[in-house]
């Protein structure tokens, strides 16, 4: 029985661990590789939105199309799933403290990420990136916490 509980604990934390590993892999990439990845992602977004019917010319004029702005926005996208992946296991284990603990863990990951960038010769520490990280994981944590609350109230009401 203890083995099953241990396996469950590992499984519920696995998504968060995978996302953290991905964040650090991106941190250790060269600026050229991250730049290429950003350009490919940007082109994928433009192509997808163009396929929906928005003219490419209009997209290119958008503020987010600027390469630096797009790269900054990537921090939100990068940390949003981390917020979700951290708050769910904390909610299962600690219930009421889940949001605070999730913010703490995500902030720590963001701080370590930026600190590593400050140490690496080809990267740099950037407080603005930490703010964007905060926006991403805060959205993930709060949205998930709200959805969990709504679902749990419905379960109580339905029983």
From TrEMBL:
Lineage: superkingdom: Bacteria
Pfam family, one: VanZ
Alphabetically ordered keywords of this record: Membrane, Transmembrane, Transmembrane helix
Coiled-coil annotated residue ranges, if any: none
Every VanZ-like domain range: 17-146
The UniProt record lists the keyword NAD: no
Name this protein carries in UniProt: VanZ-like domain-containing protein
Residue stretches spanning the membrane: 12-30, 73-94, 101-120, 132-151
InterPro entries, A to Z: VanZ-like
